[in-house]
Amino acid sequence: MNLVTRKIEDRNTDTVLLKPVGHALNENPEVSMVVPALNEEVTVGEFVDWCKEGLEKAGVKGQVLIVDSSTDKTAEIALTHGAEVLKVPKRGLGRAYIDAIPFIRGRYVIMGDADLTYEFREITSFVKKFREGYEFVMGSRFKGTIEKGAMPPLHQYFGTPLTTWILNFIYRSKFSDIHCGMRGITHDGLVRMRLASQSWQYASEMIIKALHLGLRISEVPINFYKDREGRVSNFKRIGWFAPWHAGWLTLKAIFTFGADFFLFQPGQILAAVGLVGVVFLYGGPVAAFGIGLSLHWMLFFLLLFLVGLQFFFMGILARAIYDSEKRHSPKWLRLFGFSRSSLASAGIFLVGLLSMWPLVVEYVDNGFALPPQIGKSSYQAVGGIGLVFAAVIYFTFSLVYNAVMAATPNTPQMPPVEPARVTDKEPVAGVSRD
């Protein structure tokens, strides 16, 4: 039995690669079809045949890799039909792709499901996009065809359009079907993504990270079919709440990887409005558009400014975390470099103290009693307090930002993998021991 076992140290588990007997395997494939499977013995054999037909039609050399965590005969059937099988413990759909990365040999990767719902006999459009230079190619069921009964109405007319719209709105993208499981990515792009999601939310994470990495993205229409007779989908296996749970996981991924949407620009707006208001009232009360603005309004504008500043800085921090390759860090380091931010925050802090000084003098002159009335010095002191707080926020944020930069590696890394070794496991039908 030709078994190759690699232990991924940080996961404390073995993954076993099984290679079929009697089938020629391409050592240098252009395309790798990487597909997780869980108890798909009803469809997996024909699915592997579909993959081979798709590779032949596209005129490319390929690898068919089934990532299997089944308890039925899925692995044996896939091997019999000529696929490589990576045996992994059952840990989740996203985790299956993470585990597969060290075993992918192709330059381009096409993903999907082994249930015959996606048309893997037609991959020419994906290959064409890859050769045109696109790095992430999404399939779109809505631009292609959806067989009657293939997609529940709740998914087709509500869940998928709504979550797709939310993602497009937040990330300013133009996807038509973010839940399509058939998608392609370059091997390099997949490694650079550093996928972390263990379950269904990997699908949204991939799209969002493709946007963050600036990958060239395209969509191609695909055909989507209903389940074969005798097969029960994973959603049906789990229960009625599965679609709602998957939807929530999708929203969680969208919001988690897009936190800067809620922070960066809103923070800029709040800080700008607050700063203008504070500066406008720095010299004392004013009237504008028939509205009298006094110290209470100045305190309100000060609050807007400080909250907005904090939002803005947190948005920058979120973008720094997403920017795993530090493509944009030089721009922000010019503003938040330790030496520059230390000097700038010290200067802002000093100006703030000087703005507060007239009120301190007035307070001392009055024998440490409250002034008889709120004067110009009180307004200047509020402005000074804002500057002091802004200086502290600026300095402390620069410390955190520099810490994040120092802790983030510059280049993506593959999961640590031990050299291959032969195991002493019992033979599996359809394979041989070399």
Describe this structure in words.
- This protein is of the alpha/beta class and 434 residues long.
- It folds into two domains: 3-257, Spore Coat Polysaccharide Biosynthesis Protein SpsA, Chain A, CATH 3.90.550.10; 260-407, no CATH class.
- Helix content is 48%, strand content 15%.
- It has 14 helices and eleven strands.
- The chain has helices at residues 44-58, 74-80, 93-100, 124-131, 153-171, 187-193, 202-213, 234-238, 242-256, 264-281, 295-322, 329-336, 338-365, 376-407; strands at residues 3-8, 13-18, 31-37, 62-68, 84-87, 108-111, 136-146, 183-186, 217-224, 286-288, 291-293.
- It has a nine-stranded mixed sheet, with helices on both faces.
- β1 and β2 (13-18) form a beta hairpin.
- α10 (264-281) packs antiparallel against α11 and α11 packs parallel to α14.
- The longest helix is centred in the C-terminal third of the chain and has 32 residues, at 376-407.
- The model is unreliable at 1-12 and 411-434 (pLDDT under 50).
- Helix and strand run: EEEHEHEHEHEHEHHEHHHEEHHHH
Q: In whole angstroms, how far apart are the ends? A: 6 Å
Q: Strand order across the biggest sheet?
A: 1-2-5-4-3-6-8-7-9
CATH class category name of the largest domain: Alpha Beta
Number of strands: 11
- State the major sheet: 9 strands, mixed
Helix vs. strand class = alpha/beta
Q: Architecture of the largest domain, according to CATH?
A: Alpha-Beta Complex
**What integer value in Å does the Rg equal?**
29 Å
Mean pLDDT: 86
How many helices does DSSP assign? 14
Stretches where pLDDT is under 50 for at least 5 consecutive residues are 1-12, 411-434
